[in-house]
Amino acid sequence: LAFALGSNADYDEDEIETEPIDRSYEAQLLVRKVIAEDVLVEFSNITVTYGIFNTGGSAAFSVDLTDASWGDLYEVVEGEASQSWTRIAAGASVNHTIIVKPKYAGPLMNQPAKVTYLPTSDTDEPQVVGSSLPVGKVLSSAEKYMKMALQVGKYLTLGFVRTEGEWKVFGSLSAVLFALFMGNTMALKGKAWHKDRQSRIAMEALGVSDESK
Fold it and tell me: What is the model's pTM?
């Protein structure tokens, strides 16, 4: 009895070693959400592609993709914001594409897509994974044309003026230089007129007319 009690006293639960769970035989899905367009504009089509990759050692079953991003701020032009696959084999991938049209201008309003799946054929406990999240800004029509004008201006100025801020500085300097040029021109014209007027007054005082010159 004393030996048994002594054995229990020396027992440390922290020394229990648990075997790691081997999940190499299960499906492991990675989800990517990509927008094709570099420039996003209000009331213009945006192409969104979802890519699902199975990097695990087993097929994934009952795969469901949903994306709640495209609510009242968007119009779904083509495709559906949800899609299902019965099975995605190990090492395989699938894609799903939709086209949406934003009804607003401002920061891109969206959220990660959600994918649920069964990692093996003998389980009924689904796994959930989220997609990557695209970021960007939806331009207004005016901002779109401003961007195009900046691109043209960049080439016209050989790359010296590229951004809206640089164009504002360039415009301000141009306005100052133009004002100085016009001021100098008017000053010279005024000086010439004043000199001519003084000359006419002097000739009239001497009784000399323009015809006698």
Answer: 0.62
